[in-house]
Write a structure and sequence with these properties.
The complex is a heterotetramer, with 2 copies of chain A (440 residues) and 2 copies of chain B (491 residues). Chain A has 13 helices and 15 strands. By secondary structure, chain A is α/β, with parallel strands linked by helices. In chain A, helix 6 crosses helix 7. The termini of chain A are far apart. Helix content of chain B is 36%, strand content 10%. In chain B, the strands form 3 sheets. A 7-stranded mixed β-sheet of chain B has the order 1-7-6-5-4-2-3, with helices on both faces. In chain B, helix 8 links the parallel strand 4 and strand 5. In chain B, helix 13 crosses helix 14. The two termini of chain B are 38 Å apart. The chains are: A alpha/beta (440), B alpha/beta (491). The interface between A and B is large, with 209 and 207 residues. The complex binds pyridoxal-5'-phosphate (2 copies). One pyridoxal-5'-phosphate binds next to helix 5 of chain C.
Chain lengths: 440, 491, 491, 440
């Protein structure tokens, strides 16, 4: 199948017009030695029908969250995506556009992003945001790049920060010249970062990787007293009920934005959220949309503060990001519009209540206990099982449950369970029953 | 009829305000089942007190607001979108069909691999297809965009040299390189060293040779380069770097120009990134998402990010995390998988024959269009034959009329088209960088050329039409200086 | 900005021709697998010789052509659509989600029922919900639209009377009835007998009584009627017919007005049709599809069309074909099932409480809007309180300015709204029949009222704005006489 | 869940403005005796999530053509629906519009329908068409209504016409006062209609219900000689390879249009196609779109010849149709644009070839034979089985095949098999193998 609309006759006419005799001539500047002799080592082209059937068959070899009741979290959550979100975000005027370089032709994307930035500021109680980053992990990398300056190069990371985020930080740190240092928690939360004058940032995830509520304001106060930036990794669907980063004293807040109306999709496309205080706006990475007026004085939107960005600042840019996750940000905007302040609070309230109920039900099973008893948690919690978690998960998939994810750093018997508003009491009871069977 | 018949629609006044302006206290769109378990309220010390100012609107408000915004946006489905370097080709609808299968769309990234064999096979097959296309040994599909692919590649380069106990300091990039290249070099801890282009628009090989020494970790190159020209001395270039112990990185933004004709691997490149949103027509969503897989030659395979998909003897797929020399993780999960599924569809729809045709017709279109507008907008580098895109210049027109490339672009909007990239690459004055792509028909190319020629004629006869343009759009020219001065970045 | 800020977009010139005008010999969009079995060519005597003149276009041509056409169309997602009698309320997006499940969308109508239990249950549950809403015993879901529902109902009426050896000749309908009523009556083999409305806009009960005799098979009535008024003497009306041995048919076009407040069955109706595309917001697709289920009282159940869904003792569903007294089949298969699935979603989303609220807020909106515009456009029947819609008249405005209802409608277009129905019902001069529906907000109603008042003001101060309207649309007023005279119905 | 955007405060304000004190007052014209006392006998409203899960579960209790390889036909066929069709037809400007009563706001729908009419004329080689009817069966009813006039009231129907079409005709005939009369075929085709001066129409399905090619021109010639209208029921995907109705001498052609880009959807929404000769245009049922010009002389489209229709002609109208299947017609238009003349021929060619191959493979099985050996067929054929067809179908669904539909009028052992371009050799071989197992 091909999408180029050329007919043979047109190809001939066009070649004629440019004075060439064959398509090969177009490639005459390629030195013969590096030309490919034969065809690429790929099958011949296929029809749409064949590709659809191929991928339908492959997709059928996955067991999706439609099939397995999903209690997996760890940054990606099975919150409900209402139909309206993608009915709108998937409109082709959005989805088939490029970056809004011609603002007069791109007011739809630009205004949506302005609304997105506004909503992220509202969620975080911080003052500035951008048009999205790749995902939560790379957003944290960008936040660290914002924070590191002059002699302050060290990066302190709470033990409660997700291992995947830490790994990502470590990777990028090799280029930028830092090695994130983990400070231990006590009983699953808190800890004491030693914030010396060489520390650029203190990173706290709240709720943390185990779902536990951190003493975030204390940690951030310590960071700021030591002159470092306080960076919070937050859950965007927690801040309807939990105090937002800005109020807790965070200077920069970052998050994985998937749960805002984006599908699980095996890990992406998701989006990274970032927000900061107004004074840091020129250190913010990525695109930023601003409101302005046109020559008639009518309001409109443009990409602004571009002098920060790679295409202008080049090797002096604070970030190399170009393509971001705009369409996911538009979906998030529509989703947050669907929720409003009340719906946002309701999702948080229901997720928390259901997680609490699930923890209670599951810990009634013999041999199952909370990893950190007494620590307050939001929508995720860690359990100690009488069996290796990976094995339990595997066995429970046979019964129709995706019971959670393993949490090997705390022991191979630790299972991390996430519960969203989407789960029902019946499903939670079902999981408890199935788990009981598996362990009996 | 008062309208002059511009094919671009004037889509309403754009003065209806933001979604927050539609907010009415107590209105709502959301619905959720009633809570069916006991409440577990958040302790007061942790609780939010002031609600965020999110809109309170009905579902119908949401729908009309974003439908209206969508209609105020130009996309590929609206018309030709010839942004140079961006490869805005038709995005096949079938890709949307397959990406929406629940077996892909509703899959958690941390499910046990026993429940994700299908998607792992997709990733594995795609990786190997990309290797076949680029001449690489293995690839990572994690990077969510080209710039992240660059960063990945540079960290691989770094790991490679460090592993050999030979850390190096500098990475060479052409002066015409895309901004992400130098930015990535800096973020990877290297110093960016520019090498100049010669009068043909190609890397000045002599100048390059002078820059190369044992401190050079590598070279980053786009080929065809950002001027749309094939680096004819590519063997010499990669040879020079290799001799000095460096590695050569291929910025795949222009890979679409050479599909099935030659492979970066065969030209001597060691690392390659691919922009699926360019080469393989995955929808760019008004700025993203993309995907930026990175392929490498055998000697770099050990350093690839974790996890990577492996296929066992028994045909089972697994996610391999234990790779001691790996640079680590570039993304929180597995990258933009939903986009990779679309890229898979594109690659296997086209196959070996189809991909070759892609590059052929992309080049044919670019050369044909260049010839149609050459009289008014000559090529910046007339000596070299453009490949899939070309850089023309409005310098002569500016000289004779004072009108600038941006004015031409805005007039082209009123004439019904999205204009080309302007003022990039920076090395060309009044640059107009045009990439028609292979999915535009001869008919459309001719209509676009006619629009450009009309704009040039108008520049001479009715220059006010250019200076005042656009007038057919929801807003007219916007005050960018004011936007940056009186920052208004949120409601 | 030359545009005056009309919220309706002028969406391009509409002069790009048809899809055939984009045709280029040899271009193609289609792809199919290569034939993998032996050829079996059609014998020459049966073969087509001249190919049809279908367009030869690429997929990108198709996409741009129909995207452009879509953008030249106004829908509910664009804005308020207050066509009286049409009930254009917001079409929930969730209905699209569920109708697209492959378990519904990819089901063959003649599969064995062992493989279709889910859809049969949907149909069964929907049928019973519709019966609960209308006060009927059973229903058929076969009719694909309201008019077909009417035909079904009239054939049921016919079968009922014939079965009793008492064939009858005449069916009474109010003079304000929708055109499908008399047309259906004639096609069902009956004579349509009009009954006049009184000054309140209601059926003249005295006149009715005089028409009724043993030749009357039944009466068809919309209640609230097509003037948006509730027939207050409904018990007397149905009683009169029943006494004469006739049946009473409820045209459900306005059922949305009384949901949860009263039921046709309780008013004495024997047969009811429902327009799911009105009452239950299934998308009307620019003219269709719809669905027109028909419910009946117990005594008419034996005559319902075949097949009908039955639920066995064991909870299994079946399609019952063996119904000896059935009138037969009204549709080739089971009706517009994809639409019925959407109606199911709507009904069960709302539930008993939600449906009641629908009728309440529909009536509130209509009365509120009527009050906002009453000064310029008074109610045609000021004595009666409108329910979910109302008929206003532009007669006073015409008297003082010469401007007609159609001119007002066209000016309203330029002011950003789809106008109401005009010149229907025929019994009202300069009629403007307005049905806002419950999904328009107070804010929107006020903006629409403001547009109507502006139009009235303009009629006095700038009548040319009305006569020349619309000027913000892809085309301006079209020459309908010429269309009918110089027929051009195809390329 | 509700979609009305009203807040309580607004409701109060609005009631106030119209001088009422409660919502109940709005209904005061309803006589108390007929008011509903309590709530409707329905469950309480549910959230979007609950309805989605409910219908997902119900849809999961169907075995769709994604799961069963579909050889069922009988008027509805599993032809391939390319992605582009509904990506465009489902655009909300089309789907959420009403009938184009204001043409200036409806050029998208109107022009699409004009293109649809044109394409149907091209397919049929007839001169006029309309904006669609409900489905194939009701289209036939409308065609008969067109044909009946004056003394000519009788309707002769070939035995080769689908039983569901005949049943539908019979139902509507009770109202209009005719009883369709079936004339017998010989060896599955042909027959001799006695076309007297009281005959309005002769109806022939070609290819007929058994997939067999009829001697259509002969039958139509007989009809026309007798002064009756020749009505053909055709398969819109056959006319890329088979001579079209107009050339065969049909006066009116009708069809089920589902196979033109519309989903199987358990029987609907589909669309009825109709085309006729120019002289009959004023007897055509339903909406017709015509091209005209606006006050500036620019071309545009309107509904035309409305004087035929119920809303003007009322009881004298030839048809009562109002709502039709416009959106399905738009989908059909896009699909035919996707195919073009070459693709149309290819679908016909492949379907015919695959049907022929399937017939050959299946009749190799012991006890399986063609019902009408030697009769040329298109994409459907009838087999005699060694078992009741319904039983065989049932057993084959267990093996993943929807083997066809029963054809009881020819015997309970008769199976009607349809093969579209979508079926592969492998699937056909698989059916043959499975059938072999079932019968062994
Ligand atoms: C030459 C070149 N390199 C790199 C990039 C960056 O790719 P991405 O936007 O996917 O990050 C681009 C994008 O425009 C490009 O044109
Ligand atoms: C009062 C009334 N009756 C019947 C109908 C016909 O319904 P349908 O268009 O579904 O055939 C309508 C449609 O507008 C109507 O308003």
């Amino acid at each position: 199948m091909k999408f180029a609309p050329h007919t043979e006759a047109e190809v001939a006419e066009m070649l004629d017009a440019i004075g060439l005799s064959s398509l090969d001539d177009l490639f005459d500047r390629i030195p013969p030695a590096v030309r490919l002799d034969g065809p690429l080592d790929l099958p011949a082209g296929a029809s749409e029908l064949e590709i659809v059937e191929d991928l339908r068959a492959l997709s059928g070899r996955n067991r999706s969250a439609d099939e397995l009741v999903c209690f997996a979290g760890g940054g990606a959550y099975d919150h409900y995506v209402p139909s309206v979100v993608w009915a709108l975000a998937a409109r082709s005027e959005f989805s088939t556009a490029y970056t809004p370089y011609q603002p007069e032709l791109s007011q739809g994307v630009l205004q949506s992003l302005f609304e997105f930035q506004s909503m992220i500021c509202e969620l975080t109680a911080l003052e500035v945001s951008n048009a999205s980053l790749y995902d939560g992990a790379t957003a944290l990398v960008e936040a660290v790049n914002m924070a590191r300056a002059g002699d302050r190069g060290r990066v302190l990371v709470s033990e409660g920060v997700d291992a995947r985020l830490l790994e990502t930080l470590r990777t990028y740190g090799k280029g930028s010249g830092y090695e994130p240092e983990v400070f231990p928690a006590e009983g699953g939360r808190g800890g004491a970062p030693g914030v010396g004058s060489d520390v650029a940032a203190v990173i706290v995830q709240h709720p943390n990787v185990l779902g536990i509520l951190e003493p975030a304001s204390d940690l951030f106060a310590a960071a700021r007293e030591g002159g470092a930036k306080a960076i919070q990794v937050f859950d965007p669907l927690s801040v309807g009920v939990l105090a937002p980063p800005g109020e807790l004293g965070a200077d920069i807040a970052v998050a994985e934005g998937q749960s805002l109306g984006n599908h699980l999709a095996f890990g992406g496309p998701y989006l990274g959220l970032i927000a900061a205080r107004a004074g840091d706006v020129r250190r913010l990475p990525g695109r930023i949309v601003g409101e302005t007026v046109d020559v008639d004085g009518e309001p409109g939107y443009v990409l602004t503060l571009q002098a920060r960005e790679q295409h202008i600042r080049r090797e002096k840019a604070n970030s190399n990001i170009c393509t971001n996750q705009t369409l996911m940000a538009i979906a998030a905007t529509i989703y947050l519009g669907w929720l409003g302040p009340e719906g946002l609070a309701e999702v948080g309230r229901q997720s928390a209540a259901k997680a609490s109920y699930a923890a209670q039900r599951l810990t009634e099973l013999p041999g199952v206990s909370l990893l950190h008893r007494g620590a307050p948690f939001f929508k995720e919690f860690a359990l100690r099982l009488p069996r290796p978690a990976a094995e339990a998960i595997e066995r429970l998939t046979e019964r129709g449950y995706l019971a959670g994810i393993p949490f090997p750093s705390a022991g191979e018997d630790v299972l991390l369970v996430a519960v969203t508003e989407r789960r029902t009491r019946e499903q939670i009871d079902g999981l408890a029953e199935a788990m009981g069977e598996v362990f009996s | 009829m008062t309208d002059v018949g511009a094919p671009i629609r004037r889509q309403g006044p754009g003065r209806d305000g933001t979604i927050l302006d539609r907010s009415v206290e107590g209105r709502r769109a959301w619905s959720l089942p009633a809570l069916d378990v006991p409440e577990a309220p958040v302790a007061a010390e942790h609780a939010r007190t002031a609600a965020p100012r999110l809109p309170e609107v009905g579902e119908v408000d949401l729908v009309r607001h974003y439908t209206d915004l969508a209609q105020r946006n130009y996309g590929l489905d609206t018309g030709m979108y010839p942004l140079g370097s961006c490869t805005m080709k038709y995005n096949p609808k079938v890709a949307e069909t397959v990406a929406a299968f629940p077996g892909f769309q509703r899959l958690h990234p941390l499910q046990p691999t026993s429940t994700t064999q299908g998607v792992l096979e997709v990733l594995w097959r795609l990786e190997h297809a990309l290797c076949a296309i680029t001449g690489m040994a293995r690839a990572t599909l994690q990077p969510p965009a080209g710039a992240c692919g660059e960063m990945t590649g540079l960290l691989l380069m770094r790991a490679f040299h460090e592993d050999r106990g030979d850390p190096r300091r500098r990475v060479i990039i052409p002066d015409s390189a895309h901004g992400t290249n130098p930015a990535s070099v800096r973020l990877a801890g290297y110093e960016a060293v520019p090498v100049r282009s010669d009068t043909r628009g190609l890397v000045d090989v002599g100048a390059l040779a002078k820059l190369v020494d044992g401190s050079v970790a590598g070279l980053m190159l786009t080929n065809p380069n950002t001027l749309g020209l094939f680096e004819e001395e590519i063997e010499e270039i990669t040879g020079t770097i290799h001799e000095a112990g460096g590695l050569v990185y291929y910025d795949g933004a222009n890979l679409n120009a050479i599909l099935g004709r030659c492979r970066p691997g065969d030209m001597g490149f060691d690392i390659v990134h691919i922009n699926t949103h360019k080469t393989f027509a995955t929808p760019h969503g008004g700025g993203g998402p993309g995907a930026g897989p990175v392929g490498v030659k055998e000697e770099l395979v050990p350093y690839l990010p974790v996890p990577i998909v492996e296929r066992g003897e028994d045909g089972r797929y697994d996610l391999e995390h234990e790779r001691p020399r790996s640079i680590g993780r570039m993304h929180g999960f597995h990258g933009n998988v939903g986009i990779l599924v679309r890229a898979y569809a594109y690659v296997f729809l086209h196959g070996a024959d189809g991909l070759k045709e892609v590059s052929e017709l992309a080049a044919l279109n670019a050369n044909y269009l260049a010839s149609l507008i050459g009289e008014e907008f000559p090529l910046a580098y007339p000596e070299s034959r453009p490949m899939h895109e070309f850089v023309a210049t409005a310098k002569p027109l500016r000289g004779s009329t004072g009108v600038r490339a941006m004015d031409v672009a805005k007039r082209v909007i009123d004439l019904g088209f999205h204009p080309s990239t302007v003022y990039f690459p920076l090395v060309v004055e009044e640059a107009m960088m045009v990439e028609p792509t292979e999915t535009e028909s001869k008919t459309t190319l001719e209509a676009f050329a006619e629009a450009l020629r009309t704009a040039a004629r108008d520049a001479r006869e009715h220059p006010e039409l250019l200076r005042e343009a656009p007038v057919t759009t929801p807003v007219r020219r916007l005050d960018e200086a004011r936007a940056a001065r009186a920052l208004k970045l949120r409601w």
